Amino acid sequence: MPDSWGRHLVNHRLGNPTADFSDLTYLLQSGSNRIGALDFQSDQKTFVARESTPPSLRHR
Asked: What predicted TM-score, i.e. pTM, was given to this entire model?
C-alpha cells in the first residue's frame, strides 16, 4: 500500500486532493515498476504494466 505521501500523490493525480479512495484504487493507481512491491491488476488473466509518471510537486 502507498504510504500517506503516496496516497497524497495519487489523490492529486486523480484530481481530488482531499479524497479518501478505497485501498484497491490506491493499489491500481500505483505503478508496476515499484521495487519490492506486489503488483495488482484489474484482470486476473492479462498483465498490463502500468507506468507511473513522476508526479509534479508544483503547487496548483
From this structure: 0.61
